[in-house]
Amino acid sequence: MPSYDYPFNERIRTLLRLEDLFIKVLHNIEGEHEFHHHCALLSIFQILDVIERAELKVDLLQELDRQKMVMNNLRGNPSIEEQVLNDLVTDIESAAKPLRNTPGKLGQTLRDNEWLMSIKQRSVIPGGVCEFDLPSYHYWLGLSETRRQNDLNFWLSPLMPLYDAIRIILHILRGSGATTSLTANNGAYQQMLGGAKPAQMLRVEIHDDLPCFPEVSANKYAINIRFNSLDNAQRPRPCESDINFSLTLCNL
Predict the structure, then answer these.
(1) Which pairs from 230-234 meet CB under 8 Å and 24+ separation?
(2) N or C: which end of the chain has fewer CB within 10 A?
(3) 214: DSSP letter
(4) 3-state SS class at 223
């Protein structure tokens, strides 16, 4: 079932964006063609831009420590499987240790690489990384697949503790809520929200045989979901039929 995550605040929005970028980087590094590796490097540059605008390291470590405390407080709960709890605590500790041991600002070693920063500076210009603009980069793209992959993995390695921390936090967040099966009458659904602890993210899941997608407008007070489809010109069209879907409200 395809799932759609919608964040309620900038903090979760940043984590989801970084998760998406890391997935693309790792996928393209595994590719063989130079264009795959070009796309991987551009995604690394985007990761640097995102973390430049957010102090993530302290925030992630605080959240990991908090989740570890929450998990430890669940020990002895008969409704919680002890081995699952132990595995999760181990994952949290494994994610926190390298992040805590990372000196200085995240990604600073990449920012100190003048060659990479020259490519990054040109990459924001449409067509700015042509061979006549950056002959050294064109030469690098012509090196062997193994050499390019080794270089990309080396450049990415200082950022991987960040990805590991993001993965465990989003894993806990996505598993934190109860899932409800609902129906959007004539393709539309609305729900008022309440409670002392507002949701941080919602997840919408629909069957993959339904030719539609949700567009979500939400805040701490209400959720509005409108299901649309695409016509032959990729223009959104409102669905007028009833749509069955699952909704999960997630909170750390």
Answers:
(1) none
(2) N
(3) E
(4) strand
**Token pair 């490097």 is at which residue?**
41
Using CA atoms, how far apart are residues 194 and 99, in angstroms rounded to an integer?
35
Question: What amino acid is encoded at 231 in this protein?
Answer: D
Nearest to 173 by CA among 202, 138, 197: 202
Instruction: Please give the DSSP secondary-structure letter assigned to residue 185.
Output: B
H-run or E-run covering 230:
strand 222-230
Q: Are 169 and 240 in contact (CB under 8 A)?
A: no
Q: What is the dihedral of CA 190, 196, 199, 205, to 10 degrees?
A: -50
- Can you tell me which residue has the tokens 């980087």? 25
Cα separation, 164 vs 22, in Å, equals 10
pTM: 0.90
The predicted-structure confidence for 16-74, as pLDDT tens digits, reads as follows 999 999 999 999 999 999 999 999 999 999 999 999 876 888 899 999 999 999 888 88
List, for residues 209-237, the tens digit of each pLDDT value.
888 999 999 887 889 999 999 888 778 88
How far apart CA 110 and CA 108 sit, in angstroms, is 5
In the numeric block, which tokens belong to residue 59?
Answer: 């925030």
b/e code 223-249 from CB counts within 10 Å (16+ = b): bebbbebeeeeeeeeebeeebebebbb
Question: Cα–Cα distances in Å, from 238 out to 81, 101, 181?
Answer: 44, 50, 21
Specify the length of the chain in residues.
252
